[in-house]
Design brief:
Strand order of the largest sheet: 3-4-5-6
Shape: globular
Order of helices and strands: EEEHHEEEHHEHEEE
Largest sheet: 4 strands, mixed
Distance between the termini: 23 Å
Structural class: alpha+beta
Number of helices: 5
Strand content: 25-35%
Number of strands: 10
Helix content: 25-40%
Radius of gyration: 19 Å
Oligomer: single chain
Amino acid sequence: MFAAGGMVMKMNVKVTAKKMQVDGLIEYAEARLRKLERFFGEDFDAKITASSQRGMVTLELTVKHDNLIFRAEQSAQNKNDALDACVDRIIRQIRKNKTRIEKRLQSTAFNNGFGDDVEEQADYEVIRRKQFILRPMSVEEAILQMNMLGHSFFMFKNGETGETNVVYKRDDGNYAVMEPGYD
């Protein structure tokens, strides 16, 4: 929480670092994330995960507000440049989906001509529905099945937990698992 122009901000910023120091990143992040206040008001959560590999910093920014989740990931030579690019990406995501999300964002978010130059996207059209039996399997089996099918994701019933999970291939070539979470 910090004060800006006499107003107390409720922005919650969490920073996690892997194999690197984050000296000054929290202060810089709070200053840069102020750009998002026009959309979310003063109440949103931001999670920053930074890691260093081969002289490059990879930064992942996740912003949560009112059940909306925005995520951006960027690599750069320094953490500030990576954060700047992530914030700009999230703003582009918001602008691209302006008509769908403006009801849930702060009412003044798109005033003052902001976003007028963005093409409005057509409504999403579901062109196919698919049903299949979820068989219990391990995460490793699900990844193997996904790769054999040539898909970028695969939904399955986790044999250990009994929950429906999704495995997917990340842009960095690694795999990830999505598991249900409950509030």
